[in-house]
User: What shape does this take?
Amino acid sequence: MARVIFIIMKYNTNLMKKFLTIIAAMLISMTASAQFEQGKVYVSGSLTGLNLSYNGLDKLNVGIQTQAGYMIEDNMMFLGTVSYQHNGNETVSDFSSLGLGARYYIVQNGIYLGANVKFVHAYHNYNDVMPGVEVGYAYFLSRTVTVEPAIYYDQSLKDHSNYSTIGFKIGLGIYL
Assistant: This one.
């Protein structure tokens, strides 16, 4: 049987291309779906801001973020977040935050929706609680390593016009 398929595909390149495309699609979908199963552990590091975020006070905006998560069920992850943000504002230039969040992976294709809440601290005089949302994509470089670009929005409960932020981040994730 395999020999007959080989002979047919050898002389019909269109059939060969279709066959290889189907095999590649099956392998990609199997690889992605295996990573979003219950019980998986996730760790990530991200660059946030990248001077592509905007709020009322910032000039330069760059930050780092680390995350750790656990898949409580298929396609659903709870996360803990620690981050540090630096911007060019003279009055409040460095932020640090702790947060909790969740992600839902849509139909095993790598696209996810996230929601979180962060406690933000800057100097000794500014504290804020910031709920946020994000949309991102987990692009698998291998069975366990991903590049994860995302667009996010953080809503300041203390000073909306100056500290609510929309931005872009890109991270490197590992699913264990």
The chain has a mean pLDDT of 78. Helices lie at 2-11, 13-35, 160-163.
